Amino acid sequence: MINKPFIGFLKPKIEYETAGPTTSAPREISSSGHVVLFAERPPANRDSLVLNTGDKVNTGQKLSVFKDSDHYVIATVTGAISDISSYTGDQGKKFTSITIKSEKKEEVDDEFGGKCKEPAIENAKEFLGCIAGMPELDKLMDPEKPIKTIVVNGMDPDIMVSANQYSVRYDCAGVRKGIEILKKMSGVDNIILIIPPTLKRETQLEKIETQIIDTKYPAASPSLIAKDILKQVVPAGKSFEDVGLFFIGAESVAAIAHAYEKGAVPVKKIVTVIQKDLSRTVVSAVIGTPISNILSAVGVTVNEKDRVVIGGLMTGRAVYSLDYPVQPDTDAVLVQDMEDISDISDNACINCGECIRVCPANVPVNLLVRFLEAGEYEEAAYNYDLYSCIECGLCSYVCTAKIPIFQYIKLAKYEHALILAAEAEAEAAEAGEAENV
Ligand code: SF4
Ligand code: SF4
The whole model's pTM is what? Predict the structure, then answer.
């Protein structure tokens, strides 16, 4: 039996929570004594790593992790590395976990400020890949896929989450400066800021060109912004870059502005804490801070069997340890009371059609789900529109049989990507053998 996640208590009408003039500023969370950072893959062995326990680091310092790759993390505190180990995350994906014990006296690293006087994609890619929102800035420099429009999303991906909206509300000047920097570094003039109606005043004061978005979920999904606002359809299986679009969050854009302004890599992230009664507190925390620290700072108690979810109400995923750290893309932490967790889910589909009616991507969800449950991922991908899904989670929300369809879809995309990678590897090996004959 799989437990049905957190969404059963939502009201049927699903609107984004929008920030407005009465919204209070994010609460600053003080240091926890240590931070934990994740690097892209597990350590093959101790010799494969550049870092060692005991290494001293400064705040904002770029840390190369592996000897055979240019992957890096950014130290978000000043202190010494106290542990390097393997961490298994969602869907069994493995990372290298790096713990830094912080010291009271902060030293800000000056490598970025020294090397990156002028904004450029090359130096942004080299130092700003781990700022809030983890912008994939290298996509702006791919000659095969030239970008024609940059969309700065001032809305957030899930309904009660407010990281991008808070950046527009409280740091609109930073967002404006970030947009100017993006224009300069990318050469793309067409940059559009997407906002909810409640943030019009802020953007008018900063004279930013905006498009107002519908507040009905999931209108702020990049696929729907492309279709409904930009009138540009992204074919299933294609990326936004394939059609000349690049999406970036307003929080990332403001962080880019501050990086060049201060000559230091920003190390904080805005996180919405959603409590058991659905009240919210928006905080600003150093990336790598354990969520236990944030929950205790805002007075949330987690009892045995309560559920903690990273991400929003519709698309979040459960984590099983309060030591889990805030990552550059952690927009929200939700705590759900054990009483509100609906258990279920090996029920069969009753073909009620609710999922089809609600799906914004017209996926034949009732048919797709049969192949997902059977683990037939290739059939799901090629014949039942797996890749048309924009991952909004609405089908799970309305499912009469309470099947965790959204989780099945995420797993299917992950497993199918592994199948494709294995096939590509086998083909490459076969081609190599043929050449050697
Ligand atoms: S998550 Fe479900 S409702 Fe949303 S796009 Fe995908 S299939 Fe459709
Ligand atoms: S909502 Fe659930 S039960 Fe109804 S058709 Fe879709 S998958 Fe089946």
Answer: 0.91
